[in-house]
Structure to design on (482 residues):
């Protein structure tokens, strides 16, 4: 009770709770990570309150675990060692939208649903990952390096300058947002790097372990004037990757994704299980989706140039690939697909990965595009050993930076009663993939020890950095980054 009273002096009694139902809600998420029960949950409303809470945590040596949204999939916000959960959802203001420099400043609690709605009022949008949940924090997703569906290099690093509260309670601003008078100064806060030291890298991928980011500037873009969605049915994944190697360096396309029949069916099915099972049985093994868009200036000419190059590339070099505005046998898929790529998944129903079986676990990593067929074969060879049908695996490949690399994601859809089996399959597949060179840049939960043991010098450096910024190890203890 003493701790609750002390925190109430910082945030107000209405913004601190130890109620059983509240504590249990924050003890676990939708991942396979075991639950951890916090003592208290607090809802700060500004950076100064965050600072005071962290100073209090240091004084009493009590763990502090920040969360920024109402839904979590990977276990990063589970309080492994108890303590206090800082729920930043009340820090949810869209602080400014600047159409001229194409930038928006948002607080940590701003969700995908909230941000897309606000930007749409000014015919602006943000480049997003594939169908993020509407209740997810935009800031947290980008701190966690979620990969956007746009392959253009310019959008690979969407975060600009931001404000962070270090674990000691010190409030710090990065780069051009740190000048006197910001945001009313001449600086637009566009540069996340400070003079000589790039503090941005210390907290990226580590919301809640190296510091609490309270607001950030994000790159945004004008709404498109015209769009054409192209589909290519794919049987040979290696052939499709060769095609993307030739296409994407020419900056052709806005959103570009590769989905297998299970993931695509889970995304576009309107009714479960009927539509889903029909689509899964009839869609091609893989579908390449390419969106070509006309922007604010000369949209027709831009689309014409890109379509011409796309058609000539298929005609002259890739006759084995059929690229068209319709996927044979699936009329109207284009009009259904574009909103899925431009909007978050609605919050008023199950998330798209959980509609089929009720739960899902995704395994994702970075790879060279030419290696993707081999990684698919590895996972498909392991799944039957656990009685998991190969046809039930969702697979998604996201090209990065003009196909310089790609994110490969496998999703195991499952019923909660099969959680132990899925956990074993997940770890066995991860071990095999790591052994074959898969790069796990976001090793959540039980993946962390497996990945970190192969990067001893990197982990040693991370620990030294964390010791500097978090000398008492109160920030999300048990997690080094993820």
């Amino acid at each position: 009770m003493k701790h609750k009273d002390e925190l109430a002096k910082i945030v107000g009694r209405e913004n601190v709770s130890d109620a059983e139902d509240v504590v249990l809600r924050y003890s676990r998420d939708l991942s396979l990570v075991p639950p951890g029960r916090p003592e208290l949950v607090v809802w700060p409303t500004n950076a100064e309150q965050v600072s005071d809470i962290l100073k209090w945590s240091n004084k009493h040596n009590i763990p502090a675990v920040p969360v920024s949204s109402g839904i979590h999939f990977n276990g990063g916000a589970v309080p492994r060692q108890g303590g206090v959960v800082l729920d930043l959802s009340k820090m949810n203001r869209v602080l400014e939208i600047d159409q001229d420099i194409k930038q928006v400043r948002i607080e940590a609690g701003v969700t995908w649903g909230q941000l897309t709605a606000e930007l749409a009022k000014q015919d602006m949008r943000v480049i997003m990952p594939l169908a993020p949940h509407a209740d997810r924090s935009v800031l947290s997703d980008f701190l966690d390096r979620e990969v956007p569906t746009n392959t253009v290099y310019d959008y690979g690093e969407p975060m600009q300058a931001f404000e962070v509260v270090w674990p000691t309670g010190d409030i710090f601003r990065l780069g051009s947002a740190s000048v006197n008078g910001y945001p009313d100064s001449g600086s637009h806060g566009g540069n996340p790097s400070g003079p000589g030291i790039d503090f941005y890298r210390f907290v990226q991928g580590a919301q809640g372990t190296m510091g609490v980011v309270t607001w950030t500037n994000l790159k945004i873009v004008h709404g498109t004037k015209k769009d054409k969605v192209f589909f290519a049915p794919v049987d040979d994944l290696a052939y499709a990757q060769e095609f993307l190697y030739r296409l994407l360096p020419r900056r052709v396309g806005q959103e570009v994704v590769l989905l297998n029949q299970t993931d695509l069916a889970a995304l576009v099915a309107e009714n479960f299980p009927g539509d889903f099972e029909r689509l899964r049985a009839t869609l091609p093994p893989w579908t390449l989706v390419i969106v070509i868009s006309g922007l604010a200036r000369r949209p027709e000419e831009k689309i014409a140039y890109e379509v011409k190059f796309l058609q000539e590339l298929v005609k002259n070099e890739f006759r084995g690939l059929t690229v068209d505005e319709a996927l044979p046998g699936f009329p109207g898929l284009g009009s259904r697909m574009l909103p899925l790529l431009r909007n978050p998944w609605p919050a008023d129903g199950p998330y798209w990965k959980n509609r089929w079986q009720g739960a899902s676990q995704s395994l994702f990593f970075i790879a060279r595009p030419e290696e993707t067929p081999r990684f698919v074969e590895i996972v498909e060879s392991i799944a039957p050993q656990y009685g998991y049908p190969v046809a039930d695996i969702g697979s998604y490949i996201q090209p990065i930076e003009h196909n310089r690399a790609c994110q490969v994601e496998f999703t195991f859809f499952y019923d909660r009663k099969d959680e132990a089996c899925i956990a074993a399959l997940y770890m066995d597949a991860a071990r095999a993939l790591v052994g074959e060179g898969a790069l796990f840049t976001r090793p959540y939960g039980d993946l962390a020890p497996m990945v970190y043991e192969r990067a001893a010098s990197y982990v040693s450096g991370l620990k030294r950095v964390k010791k500097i910024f978090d000398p008492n190890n109160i920030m999300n203890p048990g997690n080094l980054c993820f």
About this structure: The longest helix spans residues 299-317. DSSP finds 15 helices and 17 strands in the chain. Residues 67 and 87 are 5 Å apart (CA to CA).
